[in-house]
Structures are given as structure tokens and as C-alpha cells.
Write a structure and sequence with these properties.
26% strand; four-stranded mixed β-sheet; alpha+beta
Length: 766
């Protein structure tokens, strides 16, 4: 870019070569601002700093001395403290033979200076160091590459111009980022290099360690490399934030042990956590795995153009060939002029007495020049050189040196004529130059390329088609039980609120309050009775929302979705197709509305819709129609003021129901007390609420032998109480309070967070 070119040119003018002492960066910035780049000093210094950072540039062009920032996004020291000079690769690969005889120059901003419009690059730095953005809204994002691979591909293209981008990939394996990492090869490289646009998946490098010994030993995930341009400090803060929110479970400690020798971030786990189950969550929710969107857009003839790998290398080779032609042409002119002067000197030295007599008889220099041209056939430049020649050049040794110089110049002239007259010889010289630079500056790859199938963490060992039961706990955790443990059952002891009998090779639908649905693989869930499970929200992408329902992927299920704002519709599962990580829309929502319930509601069954104020509407299932994926559905009932839908339940064989409120009131009543009404009705005031109270849930009762599980407490501390339905009496008004049923277990200030009606228990525990 112009600012980088001007910085390097100003440093060359200041003589800051790699073998010279460092100079203050403030001096360089001052020269760039005063001569070539009339912008802010911060813009120039920031560009200079980036050219120094070995974690930003694959091949840094400036050698810095001092604090130039870190991968933790620490800022560089002020320019008055830091020092710099040209890196060897910039001096040899970007600035050789720089002059108006090799590249075009133009006036600076005030016409007082001349500056190069391009640099005579001997290497394709656009590919080596990459580029981001070319101003005026043009988006380019070229990843860095390995010097040795790019040079080999360029040489191959010189030898075989018909090579396509896919064939050049046998040399250019893929991007090579300065921070290393793993590049997942899913077969997209070929298309990206062919079209000039694509996406790569870049992953940090981790390994597992065991910290401590014996009973104090703990597993740990150690991260030694992060994806390109990932801020290490921000990444660590992101993990801590996810742990605090409960989206990452099992992390006991997080330490940054990085030092001068390299990066080392230790994620210490609890003893009961399997590291292989946590890694996929780190990849999904943190920048430990990132997608790099590549756009190979560059200016070709002052016009932006998206280029393939082959076109990029062709443009560089054409530019380098034109630059070498200008350079060799200038050298040919210089050698020819010097050869003519040497020939003139040898001519007059062959007749020293005659020349001395001619000069003695000349009245002045002008007459002497004319007579030299007339007598010896010299041109103006040759005669001027003879007159300027000191007497010591008349010695025999000097004459011998002139003869040797003439021979050397003649050989140089012949070689340059050969290069300029035969394109094959010019390309040979170009290949020799490229090989020399590869030998001098080439290095090993830092980013390792691995097949995406190998890099993917293996799923937990399982038998295809093994019967399994997925348990969803009231604290938001999900796990599965296989084999003998797979007997379905809901008990208040473990806080299970839903069980799904399925197969281990199947998937589940997760419906979120944002109206979207996501797919979760059963095989990826933790297994075992003693396992705490994993937070269901941790299996979803950021921004997915809070899960409200979990169902098997079955398009035949008569699912109905109900929103907090009072809308409902039948959901056609066949429209979801194969769900990706981005999910799909299950129900359109108005601004501020939320999905509160998704459940099985056959058309032949009636349902109960309860509002926060205690109104209940008994509605036939035929009143809820099927609608498209993004449809918002029909209005169920009219809501007043701040009133919202709080509870939904379907009725099949139940004759009674229990209403539960936030403040802990339970009311058992007959379903027949709520009249059956069509959609849009006001419903029946089923429970009188105390000030500040609100209806929480409705539970139809098939038998009084069932048990009601009540979760009380706050967001962090929750307990489960078991209330036998038989202990509840038919009530009017507000119903019974929990303190009347279990006075010893209810603490002051506790509220009810949820409730679930369990199957009949042999023995009920409080």
C-alpha cells in the first residue's frame, strides 16, 4: 500500500540498511510525513509497527528494536522510544536497483520530491505477507503464504505457462500464517485458488496433559498456538465469560503461562471431565477455531480484479520481467557508454607523443576537443574524458588495466545483449534470482495442513442404533443413558424434566425462545448416570437464545409452537430438512416476542392456555392451523396490558389440573370448570393471584398417584421439592401455599422457578 511503500523508501533514503545501526522511529515517521505521506503520524507509525510484528507479518519487512506490541494486543511504545532499520528481506527483495531506470516515479504531494509509484519487488509479497482491504470500500483478504512454496510455483509457471491453479497446488499447499495453527483441508482449497474467493477453517494447536499426581491429578488442555489475528488476552477473557454464564462446564482453572519461549495457556479441568468432550465446545464458542474468508482481490492496471492463484503469479512474473528488461536495458546503456570511453582512452594512449603535441599546440580546451575529434575520430564524451585524464593514467600499468576493463565490459555487454535479445535467457536469469532468494530467506511452514476428517474430534464410542434415553435436567443440563441405564423415567430426585427414548445415531431438535430450531447429535452427548451432563445451551451457536423444548427429529410429530405474545401455529417438521449449525426458523416472532412452548398437540385433543394473570382458555386443537416456517401463527386470546402467555398444556385423559404460581401457590381444580371456547376468547379466571404473583405452569392430572416436582430458589441455587398430588385438595380462590404442605423445606424469599408432573413413584421423597 502507499503508506508501506513510502515508509520503506524513506528508510532507504536514510540509509537504514540491515548492516547499519538502528534509528529512532520518530525520525522515519517525520521523513514520511514531511516528504511523501501528508496524514496523521499515528497512521504512519501504526503501519510501521505492523511491518515489524512477527505475529502480524509472515515475513516482517522492518527490523525493530524496542516494544512493538504483543499478541495480547498490547500497544507499541511511543515512536520516540522505539528504533528500526530495514529487514534483510525488504532490502534484498523489495528495494534492489531502485531508481527511475527500473520503476516509474512520480511527484510527491507538493511536487518537491520524486517517489516511486511501485517498488521493484523480486518476490510476490502480495502472497507472502497477504493483504487486507484496498480502500474505497473494496474488500480484499489475501492470506499469507510460505516463501519457498510460492517461489517453487512461480518457477514451475515459468517452465510450464499452461499450468492451472489446481496444478499449482502441488507446490502451494495452502496459506501459511505467522502464528502457526492447524489448517483444516476439507477440499475447498482448489476452488478458492481457482476462483479467488473461499473460506478456510483455522484451528489452534492443543495437547492434553495431566497435572499433579495421584488423587490430586487433573486433566488439562494446553494451547500452544492460536489462529491468525486472534487476541490471546481477549480469547482467555471469552472463556472466563462463558464459564461464568454456564455455557462451558468442567473448567477448574485458567492460566496464561506464556513467556519468551512461546505461548502456553493451560485450561485445567475437573477430574470427572473428559477433555475430548470440552474441545468441541471451545472450537464452537471461542476463537480457538476461526474461519478465514479469503478474497484474492488486487489492483491490476489501477483496476480492482479478483484473481486466481495462477493469475496472481502471472501478474507478478509479467511485472518482474518488465522490471528486469528496464533494469538490464539501463545496465546495457551504462556499460556501452563506459566501453566507448575506455575505447577512446585506449585510442589516444596508443599515440601519446602525438596527443601531447596536439594539446600543446591548442590555445584552449574547446580547440583541443575539436582537434581530438578531427584527428582521432573521438566523440564529445570521449574527447572530454581524454582531457580530464590525469597524467598517471599514461603509465603502462594503467594502460593494461584499461585493456582488462575493456574486455570485462565487452563480456558484460554481450551477456546483457543476450538477456535482452532472448526471452528464454531472461527467464533463466529470473529463475536463478528466485532460487537465490528462496535459499536466502526460505523457511519451513508454520501452519500445518490436516484433513478435516482427521482434525475433527472423534465422537464418543457408540454402537450404531444403540437404544438410548436422553435426559434434560431442570438446571439446563442434558445427558444420555445407554444399555441397562436407558430405562425411561422422570424423577424429582435428579431434577429430570424430560426424557426422550431414541437411538444413539439419531439427532434431536432444540427449539429456542428466538423462534429458531437447531439440530443436536445424540452421539455427542455425555453418557452415564454419574455424569452431570453438559449445558444444552453450550451445544448451540452464540445468539441462538434459551432452549424451551427438546424433541426427536421426527417430521410426523404434531408439534405446536406458542409465543409469549399469544400467537400459535402448527409446525411442519418436514420444512426443516437437514439442520446445519446455523439452525432454521421454526416460528416468526414480532419484535420483543418470545417462543415459550413447543409440544405435541394432536388436533383431536384440547389444550389449556394460561396467562400470567391467571386466566385460562380451554381450546380445541382444531383451532390451531398449520403455517409456514416463518409465519407468526394465529392469535390465541386477547391479552391485557402487560399480560403474557405463561403456561401451555394439552389434555388427553385428564379430568383435573394443578395450577402453580411464582410465589408458591398450588391450586387443584377440575378441568371442566374452564369452559371450552374458540380461539380469540377471553377464557376463565381460574386462580386469584396475590399482589406481585403470576401464573407459572399448568399440569393436567391423569391420576392422583402422580407427584409434582417444584423447583425453588434463585438463579444459582435451586432445590427440587416433591409434592404428591393426592396431598392437594380441591380448592377455590388462590389455592394452597407450599409452606402449608412442606413448612420445614421452604425458606423465606424463595420463589418457584419451574414445575413438572412426574409419573407415579413407589416412594416419594421431599
Amino acid at each position: 500500500k502507499p503508506v508501506h511503500r513510502r515508509i520503506l523508501y524513506a528508510m532507504l533514503e536514510l540509509g537504514l540498511r540491515p548492516d547499519r545501526p538502528y534509528r529512532k522511529c520518530a525520525r522515519v515517521v517525520g521523513d514520511v510525513l514531511g516528504k511523501y505521506h501528508p496524514h496523521g503520524d499515528k497512521a504512519v507509525y501504526d503501519a510501521l509497527v505492523r511491518l515489524v510484528q512477527d505475529f502480524s507479518c509472515r515475513y516482517p519487512l522492518i527490523d525493530g528494536h524496542g516494544n512493538f506490541g504483543s499478541i495480547d494486543d498490547d500497544p507499541a511504545a511511543a515512536m520516540r522510544y522505539t528504533e528500526c532499520r530495514l529487514a534483510a528481506i525488504a532490502h534484498e527483495g523489495l528495494l534492489p536497483e531502485l531508481g527511475e531506470h527500473t520503476v516509474d516515479f512520480g511527484d510527491n504531494f507538493d511536487g518537491s520530491q520524486r517517489e516511486p509509484l511501485v517498488l521493484p519487488a523480486r518476490l510476490p509479497f502480495l502472497l507472502l505477507d497477504g493483504a487486507t482491504g484496498i480502500a474505497v470500500g473494496m474488500a480484499t483478504n489475501i492470506p499469507p503464504h510460505n516463501l519457498g512454496e510460492v517461489v517453487e510455483a512461480a518457477i514451475a509457471l515459468i517452465d510450464r505457462p499452461e499450468l492451472e491453479s489446481a496444478e499449482l497446488q502441488q507446490w502451494v499447499l495452502g496459506p501459511d500464517f505467522p502464528t502457526g495453527g492447524l489448517l483444516l483441508d476439507d477440499g475447498s482449497f482448489a476452488e478458492t485458488y481457482r476462483t479467488g474467493r473461499g473460506s478456510f477453517t483455522l484451528r489452534g494447536v492443543t495437547h492434553l496433559e495431566t497435572l499433579g499426581q495421584g488423587k490430586r491429578s487433573r486433566p488439562a488442555i494446553v494451547v500452544t498456538e492460536l489462529p491468525f489475528q486472534v487476541n490471546k488476552a481477549a480469547w482467555i477473557a471469552r472463556i472466563a465469560e462463558l464459564v461464568e454464564k454456564g455455557k462451558l462446564e468442567g473448567i477448574a482453572d485458567l492460566r496464561d503461562e506464556s513467556d519468551r519461549t512461546g505461548m502456553r495457556v493451560v485450561i485445567e479441568l475437573r477430574r470427572d471431565v473428559v477433555p475430548e468432550t470440552l474441545l468441541p465446545q471451545l472450537y464452537q464458542h471461542t476463537p480457538l477455531q476461526e474461519n478465514f474468508s479469503a478474497v484474492f482481490l488486487a489492483l491490476v492496471g489501477a483496476q480492482p480484479k479478483q484473481l486466481s492463484l495462477r493469475e496472481l503469479l502471472q501478474e507478478f512474473l509479467q511485472f518482474r520481467e518488465a522490471t528486469l528488461t528496464r533494469q538490464y536495458g539501463h545496465q546495457r546503456q551504462t556499460v556501452g557508454d563506459r566501453l566507448a570511453l575506455v575505447a577512446g582512452l585506449q585510442t589516444v594512449l596508443a599515440d601519446i607523443p602525438g596527443v601531447m603535441a596536439l594539446l600543446a599546440q591548442s590555445a584552449n580546451n574547446t580547440i583541443a576537443k575539436q582537434r581530438l575529434q578531427e584527428v582521432y575520430g573521438l566523440n564529445a564524451a570521449q574527447s572530454e574524458a581524454v582531457l580530464a585524464m590525469p597524467l598517471r593514467r599514461l603509465t603502462a600499468l594503467e594502460q593494461q588495466e584499461l585493456a582488462q576493463e575493456r574486455e570485462s565490459l565487452t563480456q558484460q555487454q554481450q551477456h546483457l545483449d543476450k538477456l535482452l535479445g532472448d526471452r528464454r535467457e531472461l527467464l533463466k536469469a529470473l529463475k536463478k534470482e528466485l532460487r537465490s532468494l528462496r535459499k536466502q530467506f526460505g523457511d519451513e511452514r508454520r501452519t500445518r495442513i490436516v484433513p478435516a476428517t482427521v482434525a475433527a474430534p472423534p465422537p464418543p464410542a457408540t454402537v450404531v442404533g444403540l437404544p438410548t434415553v436422553v435426559h434434560w435436567l431442570h438446571k439446563g443440563y442434558v445427558k444420555r443413558l445407554d444399555g441397562q441405564d436407558a430405562a425411561p423415567g422422570l424423577t424429582p430426585d435428579d431434577g429430570t424434566v424430560a426424557t426422550i427414548a431414541t437411538q444413539s445415531d439419531r439427532s434431536l431438535w432444540v427449539f429456542c425462545d428466538t423462534g429458531r430450531v437447531f439440530g443436536v447429535s445424540v452421539a455427542g452427548l455425555p453418557v452415564g448416570k454419574r455424569s452431570r451432563g453438559t449445558p444444552l445451551v453450550a451445544l448451540l451457536p452464540d445468539g441462538a437464545g434459551q432452549p424451551v423444548a427438546l424433541w426427536p427429529c421426527d417430521p410426523t410429530l404434531p408439534l405446536v409452537g406458542v409465543s409469549r405474545g399469544g400467537r400459535a401455529k402448527r409446525i411442519d417438521g418436514a420444512e426443516f430438512g437437514k439442520l446445519t449449525a446455523r439452525g432454521n426458523t421454526a416460528m416468526g416472532l414480532d419484535e420483543g416476542d418470545r417462543l415459550v412452548w413447543v409440544g405435541v398437540w394432536p388436533e383431536a385433543a384440547a389444550g389449556l392456555i394460561g396467562t400470567t394473570t391467571g386466566r385460562v382458555l380451554r381450546l380445541p386443537g382444531t383451532d390451531i392451523g398449520l403455517a409456514g416456517r416463518t409465519a407468526k401463527g394465529d392469535r390465541l386470546l386477547r391479552l391485557r396490558g402487560e399480560e403474557a402467555i405463561a403456561a401451555v398444556a394439552t389434555i388427553e385423559q385428564a379430568t383435573e389440573m394443578v395450577l402453580v404460581t411464582v410465589q408458591g401457590y398450588l391450586k387443584r381444580m377440575g378441568i371442566g370448570e374452564v369452559r371450552l371456547a374458540p380461539r380469540g376468547s377471553l377464557g376463565t379466571q381460574a386462580i386469584r393471584l396475590k399482589t406481585g404473583d403470576a401464573l407459572l405452569s399448568i399440569h393436567p392430572i391423569a391420576t392422583t398417584a402422580q407427584t409434582l416436582g417444584i423447583w425453588i430458589g434463585d438463579r444459582l441455587q435451586r432445590r427440587t421439592l416433591a409434592i404428591p398430588v393426592a396431598a392437594l385438595t380441591r380448592q377455590t380462590g388462590s389455592g394452597e401455599h407450599l409452606s402449608e404442605l412442606i413448612p420445614a423445606d421452604l425458606k423465606a424469599g424463595e420463589t418457584v422457578w419451574g414445575a413438572h408432573l412426574y409419573r407415579e413413584l413407589e416412594q416419594t421423597k421431599k
